Fold this protein.
Amino acid sequence: MLPELLISSATETDVPALVQLANRAYRGDASRQGWTTEAHLLDGQRTDAEDIIDLMKVPGATFLLARTSAGQLMGSVYLKPQLPDLYLGMLSVEPGQQGLGIGKLLLDAAETQARAHSCTDILISVITVRAELIAWYERHGFQRTGETLAFPTDTRFGIPRQPLELLLMRKQLALA
């Protein structure tokens, strides 16, 4: 059952919690508790404090946080307006809480943010071999664009265990 969550924008004081959440959701043993793990595809960390701070400094960009009323961080998502799109990245949900609807709640909040920035679409990139994740986004209205990008070569954010590329997916927003 989805716990009652409050959505807010992150500040620099949230950086350590964001780093911990993203790394727990995507890499290492903790990530294996959930279904979004990339630990079988990449070694190393997903992000670090410097990366999160750099992302926060992009004009108009934000991390939205989903917290319990007690303040526990359950999920987050990075959003960056790049008209006509809102780029959505690093959607992270606490591994033991995945499957409860937190990711969907954050997607809904992203749509609200997109409309507030006059964006008509939400754009994401997903590792092409993540069939289950691609299917999840498709169930939430995203469509494959047919475009792919090279996977980043900066090993600071992960060391691929196999050749990887990113699939671009887009969700066109209904007019409000």
Observations:
- The chain has a mean pLDDT of 94.
- Residues 14 and 65 are 9 Å apart (CA to CA).
